[in-house]
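User: Before I run my own analysis I want an independent prediction to cross-check against. Here's the chain; please return only the structure tokens and, at the end, one sentence I can use as a sanity check.
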Amino acid sequence: MYFVYILHCADGTYYTGYTPDLEKRVALHNAGKGAKYTRSRLPVKVAWSKGYKGKSAAMSAEARIKQLTRVQKDKLVNE
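Assistant: Structure tokens:
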């Protein structure tokens, strides 16, 4: 199982990623050892996540979400 997630960063921006272990990945982000983007925007919290059966499905979903506008991501997060 892989998870696609959207993090809400301290500066109000979103970060999207995928991982097989969501809890561990969020902890890494908050420890400053995650993505370069989130290191200067701590703390982060999970705003949205969804599980997928395989890595390729998760990667495809991540790519689609990254193409969304801020308004569309807001809508997804608030569903």
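Sanity check: The beta strands are 2-9, 14-19, 44-52.
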